[in-house]
Fold this sequence. Notes:
The complex is a heterodimer. Chain A is an alpha/beta fold. Chain A has helices at 62-70, 92-101, 119-129, 136-149, 166-178, 196-213, 224-230, 248-253, 258-266, 307-311, 333-339, and strands spanning 12-25, 31-46, 51-55, 77-82, 85-86, 102-105, 184-188, 216-220, 233-238, 241-247, 317-318, 324-325. In chain A, a hairpin with a 2-residue loop joins strand 4 and strand 5 (85-86). The model of chain A is unreliable at 1-6 (pLDDT under 50). In chain B, the strands form 2 sheets. Chain B has an 8-stranded mixed β-sheet with strand order 6-7-8-3-9-10-12-11, sandwiched between helices. In chain B, strands 2-1-4-5 form a 4-stranded antiparallel β-sheet, with helices on one face.
Amino acid sequence: MSSTATAAGPLVRVRDLVKHFPITRGIIVQRKIGAVRAVDGVSFELQRGETLGLVGETGCGKTTTAKLIMRLLDATAGEIDFEGTDITRARGARLKAIRREVQMIFQDPFSSLNPRKTIGSIIGEPFAIHGLLPDRDERRREVRRLMETVGLNPEHYNRYPHEFSGGQRQRIGVARALALSPKLLIADEPVSALDVSIQAQVLNLLRDLQRRLGLTIVFIAHDLSVVRHMCDRVAVMYLGKIVEIGPNEAVYEFPRHPYTGALLAAVPVADPSLHGQERRLLSGDVPSPANPPSGCRFHTRCPKAQALCSAQEPGLEDKGSGTLVACHYPLSREEVAQIGVRSAR
Amino acid sequence: MSEPLLRVEDLRVEFPTEDGLVHAVDGITYQVYKGRTLGIVGESGSGKTVSSLTTLGLTRRQGARISGRILFEGKDLVTLPEDELRAIRGNDIAMIFQDPLSSLHPLYRVGRQLTEAVRAHRDVSKAQARERAVELLGLVGIPDPSRRVDAYPHEFSGGMRQRAMIAMALANEPKLLIADEPTTALDVTVQAQILALMERLQRELEMAIVIITHDLGVVAEMADDIAVMYAGRIVETASAARVFAFPEHPYTWGLLKSIPRLDAQRGEDLVPIPGTPPSLISPPSGCHFHPRCPYVQPDHARIDPQLQPVPEEPSHHVACLLESGVRKRLWAQLGAGRTPEEALVEVGLPAPPGAPV
């Protein structure tokens, strides 16, 4: 892709991104009777070299957001500016060029690798797709180098995925994602399918690669301890919207949105002496994204909700503690302590 | 302490396969007491699920070779005839599985599945059983239970399905509840609700709980006692407080050091356990953990460690060939942020030959 775009400034600007999935009725003539508002007006920027964590419960739109950035889905509205090109509208050669720059690591290392291909050809496939390194020896050399980068033995070039353990397979996925030296890496739950003892290996690898290669990473995970460990900034999503975004320390030490607070209070901590400590738990389930609540979408579960919350939707604003928060009545420090946020300082 | 409700003695479960004999559970012993919770921690393939399935007699049909004893109220569940076991299963001992969607029948209403569980063990009318089903759904916190009882599983959210599963397990007020990764598929907020629910019900019904999980956070929240399993064996067992404060097995250290913690300082490096869990067909010689252990000494590949009490605490057992004093010094070094290699030097142990990188 051309380097005419600004080298400084954010790598990606996401503005008012919307993705609605139509709900249809009828088999032959499909009538649209509604929409699942998976992503419903999301804006954020990705700085070069930073790791942004996307967290939230199942169905909050974090994976859909990632797929929109990958252009695996077409956006309903909004734009994703990647170094001067709008990913949502790019086509043909332009799109192919962007796809080289944005790569993804998937959750399940068992279904994301073709069992009939050797890992050498799996890792080398991005070169084939983009018509790079046509020389066989050269490609092989590059694949071996990638295997070494992610801690795989290059001698295993001709082995098949089933000969590898879960952690090693995830390394294969990482090597494939790194093949084209992308600027942006999207990691969607990259360790949640792995055993505890293996998780740390992959997390350390990603952190190490990020430092060495200066990668920009979007890190999606439901495990808030893992996100805290990995990310520079964190965005908390609820029902298709970002409810709080800010630097890691600010979000974890002084969460302002009652939803962020509730998420952090719910994380089990490996310390039995904290057992019995007062915690406030959220009740109920996430409402349907096909019919989200009026005003602030969290008001139906929010312990602090007032009349204003169901009437008027709060915008993302700076409430003086370093994060942007979409809440009419953000948490105070006393309240953060009361609800039992274990990372509060 | 009083008599244990469940006493597992030297339990071994082996599965013959085409590739050889899988030693899924390799001689484990533990007790569970009324009103208390035992947490069994381990990775996939450590034998934690197989041992619990065997307690309910659910591995019999898979051709498992079972030896040892599982004593529940004076009966040995290993040798108990199937019809007597069936009277206990779902009645005195109930189980919650990880995946509520595949454990509920998709074509039957939730209420019908609940009444079935009640009527299997109680001689009650359909109307009474239905009443009980509504009561159970209310007990586990499903809103509007008298209407929800007629819903199908797919109409429930993940959290509600897990609650329905718990309701089913509780249908006959079991004395022992075995929960196998009960919250692994759930979001943190729902997980916290389910764990709180299990604790409340335990208090009200004085149940004993065995919770099986790989999540150290969950066991810290729930368990009174912990057994850490590795390759079909228990390698460390003690009260939860001791396992987290004074762990003595290198595998337990590895688990504790490889998870990022919300209450710790950020930026601490994770110390992964090198290598991968071993094959259960031909487990490593000597100490099963020795190929992955950073503190391995030459004779550890030869000698098989037994669970031994630590000197100052007879209820804390560890299966490790290092001396307890050495282990304590190593853990102190790790606690001070040193790497396993640095800790070895500080404690004055020789670095293992061909140490895992």
